[in-house]
C-alpha cells in the first residue's frame, strides 16, 4: 500500500491517478465488502470469490456497477472455482458516488490495474436496471457486452 501511494504521488503530476478518492472507496470496501471478500481481496474460496484479477473486476465497468447494485445468485465460476452462494444487492445502501469509489478502489488494488469508474456510469446503470428485482445469474454476466459503458 505504501508503495502504491508513493507511485501515485510520483505519477500525479503526469497522469491523473486512478485513485481519485482512495479514502471513500477504501472506507466502503472495509465497511461492506470486507466480511466476505476479505482485507486481502482474496475472498475465502470456495465460499467467497477473490476480487484479484477476475474477469468481473477488470471487465465491463457497467457490469461491475450492476453487480454491486443487484447482487449475484450462484452458481458462478470465478477463476476456475465454482461458487454456489449469493452476493446480496447493495443498491438501497449505497449512493452512486460510493459505488463508483468502491469499484474504482477494487479495480486499482489487489493486483488490479483497471481504469477508474465515474458516478455517472453507476447512475446510468441504476436507471437502466431500475425495474429489475432479481440478482444476476452467471449466464447474464457472461453475456454482458465487453465494453458496454452505460450512458455512452
Ligand atoms: C455477504 C457476502 C458478500 C458481500 C458483503 C459482498 N460480496 Fe461480492 N460476492 C459474494 C459472493 C458469494 C459472490 C459469488 C456469487 C455467488 O456465489 O452467487 C460475490 C461476487 C462478487 C463479484 C463477481 C465475482 C468476482 O469475484 O469477481 C464481484 C466483482 C464482487 N462480488 C464485488 C463485491 C464488492 C465490491 C462488494 C462490496 C461493495 C461485495 N462484493 C460485497 C459475496 C459478497
Write a structural description:
The structure is a single chain. The protein has seven helices and four strands. The chain has 152 residues and is mainly alpha-helical. It has one domain (20-142): Cytochrome Bc1 Complex, Chain D, domain 2. The model is unreliable at 11-19 (pLDDT under 50). It binds heme C. Heme C binds at residues 32-33, 35-37, 48-51, 54, 56-57, 64, 67-68, 72-74, 76, 78, 83-88, 90, 102, 106.
Tell me the CATH superfamily. Cytochrome c-like domain
State the name of the first-level CATH class. Mainly Alpha
Structural class: mainly alpha
CATH topology: Cytochrome Bc1 Complex, Chain D, domain 2
* Overall pLDDT confidence: 88
- Tell me the count of domains: 1
Give the names of the bound compounds: heme C
What gross morphology would you assign?
A: globular
Number of strands: 4
What is the correct CATH architecture? Orthogonal Bundle
Strand order of the largest sheet: 1-4
- Rounded Rg: 15 Å
Helix fraction by DSSP (H/I, runs of at least 4): 40-55%
| H/E element order | HHHHEEEEHHH
Distance between the termini: 33 Å
Beta-strand fraction estimate? 5-15%
